[in-house]
From TrEMBL, chains A, B:
PANTHER family: POLYPHOSPHATE:AMP PHOSPHOTRANSFERASE (PTHR34383:SF3), POLYPHOSPHATE:AMP PHOSPHOTRANSFERASE-RELATED (PTHR34383). It comes from Ornithinimicrobium pratense. Coiled coil: none annotated. One of its GO terms (biological process) is polyphosphate metabolic process. This is Polyphosphate kinase 2 family protein. Keywords: Kinase, Transferase. Pfam families: PPK2. The keyword Transferase applies.
Length: 288, 288
């Protein structure tokens, strides 16, 4: 734990450093910076592994509380970011270290015809985590004010109303004992160019590439503007945004792990107390 | 790879050794045996880790084929076993090593009122894996001929019809490009007693214990009989059963990993070929 303790100034250093505050300007944040962490790449990778057990343990306690203690407490991690910003790697290298039984990942793709025939939160609600689980959204309801806004997929007056709808929705989740952790992985346009280039260089990565990814790069400024609006308008006290500089993959992974840890620690989870007489059950078992 | 290669006699040694064949008698199989593996515990643990990358790689290829090659191929791992047989540990230590985005685990609990109002396969069908995914069932439709049969939860003539229904259902999955891998974790009654006792000894494991678990031990012979019937009657050529001796957790985990590997290797998966001109896309990217 040594490497990360060096960097800790408060109980929630990553949440403090990465939280979007009044007047936040996305373009002012350096995507190569490493807020709340003074170490280098190797330190960051080591810190990630050092905290693996704690994250797994807290996840198990969260789950145990739902099974043995009837708790409704659950966590929803919302991950947004431009193409190649590292959402998939995060699922694998952070979320993947937790017991898969305690996690429910949903990757929201282009909506289907059926999904489009319903209000935009319909498909989101269906994938909310059950009590005791960590739900993870790889893209989310925010696409409905990001890609939809950039490409005018619905009239402006329609997407404009969605910010308030999202705030109400998220407040409802928080009121229902859900810890909502919203993360934007922030990469630079130059870094995206490099990452797309590497996909084109490797035949085993071609399946991840789509020529449309390059078309989307033309809309980079419009996307940044749409992100800025989402960060400004859906940043409530109970469900704030965290913007994670993500040009360095190792940092982004560590930061999201630490954000999860800080939120889980704050729940002060306890093992549920047995609702049976342990000695009596031991005697019963002995007789079988 | 050395340790496991020593033990390999055919291309599919675990599938060959563990497959249920005509005349198989469950009670004749020693739950402490380690078919197809001559190593000890440390060798088994090392072999599990050594094959982690291959399993991850094959899973990625399976997923890539669905995204980039329109393949409908998917895998369904069905895991059955008595309480404490190690289903949860398998999810964590074998399935958990694969990219969580490629896996969909469902733990089937006691059916809800809504589920009971539908045919027994209704809730199962809703959780079948999508193309490219590895679906994992922690308990399954087999509960409808196991706990249901042992406790007469439906009339005998009703559960008796289910074996044929299950065979038709599974044939349909196989016809729809699903590799069905059915595993029974086989523990002894004495081992279960030890494992329940250890749960009672540890306050952080009390939440996993239920006094009903001891009541169920009285039905041990009836459960073994119900398992034998399921193994006999739902053991088709295209969706055979594999019985994994599970008193040694390390062996059971290795065996299920190897069964998955052997099935995935047999699919001869290839990276999909790009459906775009790679050089042209590199030029387009360079211009952005």
């Amino acid at each position: 734990m040594a490497k990360i303790k060096r960097t800790i100034e408060t109980d929630r250093p990553f949440a403090d450093a990465l939280r979007v505050r009044e007047g936040f300007v996305l373009s002012d944040l350096d995507p190569r910076s490493t807020p709340a962490f003074t170490g280098k790449k190797d330190d960051g990778k080591a810190a990630l592994l050092e905290h693996d057990d704690e994250l797994s343990g807290l996840q198990e306690k969260l789950y145990a509380a739902s099974v043995g203690g009837n708790s409704r407490r659950r966590v929803l991690l919302v991950v947004q970011g431009m193409d190649t910003s590292g959402k998939g790697g995060l699922m694998r290298h952070v979320v993947g270290l937790v017991d898969p039984q305690g996690v429910q990942i949903t990757a929201f793709k282009k909506p289907t015809e059926e999904e489009l025939s319903h209000p935009f939160l319909w498909r989101i609600r269906k994938r909310l985590p059950e009590p005791g689980k960590i739900g993870v959204f790889d893209r989310s309801h925010y696409e409905d004010v990001l890609v939809v806004r950039v490409h005018d997929l619905v009239p402006p007056q329609q997407w404009a109303r969605r910010y308030a709808t999202i705030n109400d929705f998220e407040q409802g989740l928080v009121d229902d004992e859900t810890s909502v952790v919203k993360v934007m992985l922030h990469i630079s346009s130059a870094e995206q160019k490099d990452r797309l280039g590497r996909r084109l260089d490797r035949p085993d990565k071609h399946w991840k590439f789509n020529p449309g990814d390059i078309d989307e790069r033309e809309h980079w400024p419009a996307y940044q503007e749409a992100y800025q609006a989402a960060l400004d308008r859906c940043n409530s006290e109970s469900a704030p945004w965290f913007v994670v500089p993500a040009d360095r993959k190792w940092y982004a992974r560590l930061a999201v792990q630490q954000l999860l840890l800080e939120h889980l620690r704050a729940l002060d989870l306890q093992w549920p107390v047995a609702d049976f007489d342990v000695q009596e059950q031991k005697k019963r078992l002995a007789r079988t």
